[in-house]
Design a protein that fits this description.
Keywords: Coiled coil, Membrane, Transmembrane, Transmembrane helix. It comes from Candidatus Collierbacteria bacterium RIFOXYB1_FULL_49_13. This is Phosphodiester glycosidase domain-containing protein. The strands form three sheets. The protein has an eight-stranded mixed sheet. The protein has a five-stranded antiparallel sheet with strand order 4-18-5-16-17, covered by helices on one side. A five-stranded antiparallel sheet has the order 7-6-10-8-9, with no helix packed on it. It has about 400 residues and is of the alpha+beta class. A hairpin with a 2-residue loop joins strand 13 and strand 14. It has two domains: about 80 residues; about 240 residues, no CATH class. It contains eight helices and 18 strands. Helix 2 runs antiparallel to helix 4 and helix 2 runs parallel beside helix 5.
């Protein structure tokens, strides 16, 4: 019996089956590996995305925590509180200066507000800013009313002449009608043909702090003047905001000794000025338009220019002090004359209209409030507080 060929046939069959099994296993192994790789990629992508989301969430949480952090809240609250304090402080200083102006005119009237101010300051110190602000807001109109009234004590308005023209010569108190309103005006008229305009100063040189001051009557006496009016704006010692520069003024001025004051810091000044020389008067809208000529009689700068070319030159500028009513001192010219005086109970814009209606060709506003003073054979307005300079009229 022959068995060799049969064994070979079975060997071939087993080999084929083994090869097939190997292929199947290989395919499954390959597919398994590919599926594992794909899953690994997906897992890594998901992990990466998750980390990004975690990062974003973490940043958002940090921002939220920073915005709601106690210290930041405290800083914001502190900032708001500081703003309240600064606002209340500025308001307090402003009202205090109004009170100082009233006290310069009437100590009795000013005393009425001492308790009111004390109450406001007490609320301020306790952090009750709203109550302090309400009290401080209510006081200025009342102080202004009392200051205007105090300046009119002893004046019988009904007995005054109603006249829109200034006197031809000398002093007169009169009523002037403008736009349906009536104003009391004290005015001195003097011809430049026999009158010299000078400016006198308490200091001999520039002064930045603790500067000397004098009463208007003392200026009049030492220069032998027949009339005088207070001069330029300055920083009164009673004003808290004037600490470190008390009684100083910073506008251009040439006094009777031909000494220019504040020359260096007024090279580019836009503050108006009045210049008098002999029988002529010149008013410039900016100090920079004037040099340093010592051949003239007087130079004084202040603001604003009230009348220019016979027309009112000022209609208001948003300054609360210019918009309040009080005595408005002025120096003006026209028709060969010089005019000095005070428009009572007027805003600066109203004073400009009044002086234009009176026929002045040019006029310059001078200091006011508690500094207001006019002298002509005695005080006609004031005396007010002591001042660092004054405009005087002397005989030639």
């Amino acid at each position: 019996m022959k068995i060799g060929p049969k064994l070979s046939k079975y060997k071939v069959g087993f080999a084929a089956v083994g090869l097939g099994l190997c292929l199947v296993v290989g395919v499954f192994a390959y597919l398994g590996r590919e599926m594992w790789l794909a899953q690994e990629i997906i897992t890594r992508q998901e992990n990466g995305l998750g980390k990004s989301e975690e990062t974003i969430a973490s940043m958002s949480a940090q921002i939220f925590n920073l915005e709601n952090e106690d210290q930041r809240k405290k800083n914001k609250e502190l900032d708001e509180k500081m703003k309240q304090i600064e606002s209340s402080f500025r308001q307090t200083l402003s009202v205090w200066e109004r009170l100082a102006d009233l006290r310069a005119v009437s100590i009795k009237d000013a005393a009425k507000y001492d308790k009111e101010m004390a109450a406001a300051l007490k609320w301020f110190s306790e952090g009750n800013y709203s109550s302090a602000a309400a009290k401080l807001t209510s006081l200025p109109p009342l102080m202004e009313r009392d200051r205007v009234a105090a300046m009119s004590v002893g004046i019988k308005i009904e007995n005054l002449v109603v006249e829109n023209k200034p006197p031809e010569s000398g002093y007169r108190r009169q009523r002037v009608n403008v736009d349906g309103a009536e104003f009391v005006v004290d005015v001195v008229t003097a011809s430049l043909s026999n009158t010299k305009v000078i400016v006198d100063t308490a200091s001999e040189n520039d002064c930045g702090n603790n500067c000397p001051v004098m009463s208007l009557s003392d200026y009049v006496a030492r220069s032998g003047a027949f009339a005088g009016v207070n001069g330029s704006y300055f920083c009164p010692a009673e004003y808290p905001t004037c600490a470190g520069k008390t009684n100083s003024f910073d506008t251009l001025l040439m006094n009777k000794n031909k000494k220019y004051f504040n020359s260096d810091n007024n090279v580019y000044s836009v503050v108006p000025a009045a210049i008098f020389n002999g029988t002529s008067a010149r008013f410039v809208s900016r100090s920079l338009e004037w040099g340093r000529d010592t051949g003239v009689d007087a130079v004084i700068a202040n603001q604003p220019l009230l009348v220019a070319g016979g027309k009112a030159a000022f209609g208001g500028d948003g300054d609360s002090k210019h918009a309040s009513r009080g005595g408005r001192s002025f120096i003006g010219s026209g028709g060969g004359n010089v005019y000095i005086g005070v428009v009572r109970g007027a805003t600066v814009a109203e004073a400009a209209k009044v002086l234009a209606a009176m026929g002045l060709e040019n006029a310059l506003n001078l200091d006011d409030g508690g500094s207001t003073a006019l002298w002509s054979g005695g005080y006609k307005a004031g005396p007010g507080r002591n001042i660092p300079n004054a405009v005087l009229l002397v005989r030639r």
